[in-house]
Amino acid sequence: MKILALRGENICSLQARFEIDFTSEPLAGAGLFAISGPTGAGKSTLLDCICLPLYHVTPRLVSAPQREVSVPDAAGEISVSDPRNLLRKGAQSGFAEVDFCGTDKKRYRARWEVTRARGREDKRGKLKKVEASLFSLSEDKLLSNSVQEIKPMVVAKVGLTFAEFTRSVMLAQNEFTSFLKAGENEKAAILEKLTGVDVFSKIGSSIYRTNDAYEQQLKVLQTVNEQTVILSDERRTELLALVQRIQTEIQHHRNASDLLNSELQAFQSMQQLKDKKTADEIRESGLIAQKLKVEERCIQVEKNLAELNSIRMQSAPDIDRAREIDVRLAAQADELSRVKEQWQKKL
């Protein structure tokens, strides 16, 4: 995590709007610089302006005596530890804004702002709720404007809690000893997060777990080795002879199996030929039967044709006579019609 810029207005003793850009000269090229000035100049206020946008609390508020005591404000009271007390007396609004580079190497902007409601005449208005936002400068988008959502997001981006941040990155006035007096484990955790050597702790833990697993495997192998009986030379010779005999029998059975497989294949080939011959015979007998049926049908058809021709020959004279009668009838009908017409004309 790295602070890139700091801005603010009307926070404690800092009245005018200010901006400190740590990425530009002369601060960018300075390896080390000091914040100095007389009492009340605003040295600690700069530290407050860093903590307010990030954690919504400051070291001086956490360490303030009688934190539960309330003080009057407009129409009500607020706690002494309320961050809104850092608004400059008589100011209508104030803000603190910090740009920083997170642990993911992306740039962010956190903002904390408080305003007063407008009072009547010369009376001060009531303090409103804090307004906050977290903006991603790298992605150019607003991540959240909810205080409850911003708090865990900032901890994730910074990589430190408020307690760890104020004991390492930013030591408030007279708080340097808090880091020196911190417990060994707590101090180690803070240093790991600051220097990025926590990866070595993870590697060490992995090595320890791997070594423990190998030790367990070694114990199992040692137990098996202790339970293993070493054979004598005579017993080993007997077992080798037994193995040789078993291998000879296995080879004999393999040869017998190969011979049986060859005979089985020959039998299957003969069976296939036999089945094929039988199928050919069945197919040939079927064709002969079909041929006989066709021949019988042809003989029947020829017989029917002969009968029809005989009937036709016998009926031919009658047909010719019937045609002659039809012609005569037609002529008589024409004559009858002609006579009727003449008779009608005479009438």
What order do the helices and strands come in, and which of them pair?
Blueprint lengths: L1 E8 L8 E4 L21 H13 L3 H4 L7 E4 L2 E4 L13 E9 L5 E9 L15 E6 L4 E4 L2 H12 L3 H6 L8 H5 L3 H12 L2 H30 L5 H114 L1
Antiparallel strand pairs: 1-2, 1-5, 3-4, 5-6, 6-7, 7-8
Features:
alpha+beta; 6-stranded antiparallel sheet; two-stranded antiparallel ribbon
Description:
The chain is α+β, with helices and mostly antiparallel strands. Helices cover 56% and strands 14% of the residues. It has a six-stranded antiparallel β-sheet. Strands 3-4 form a two-stranded antiparallel ribbon. β5 (93-101) and β6 (107-115) form a beta hairpin. The model has no long low-confidence stretch (mean pLDDT 79).
Structure at a glance:
This protein is α+β, with helices and mostly antiparallel strands and 347 residues long.
DSSP strand count: 8
The percent range for strand residues is 5-15%
Relative helix content: 55-70%
Largest sheet: 6 strands, antiparallel
Query: Which overall shape is indicated by the principal axes computed on the Cα atoms?
Result: elongated
Q: What's the average pLDDT?
A: 79
- Number of helical elements: 8
Poorly predicted regions are: none
Side by side, the strands of the main sheet go 2-1-5-6-7-8
- The H-and-E topology, N to C, reads as EEHHEEEEEEHHHHHH
Distance between the termini: 144 Å
- Kindly provide the radius of gyration, computed on alpha-carbon positions and rounded to a whole number of angstroms: 58 Å
* Structural classification: alpha+beta
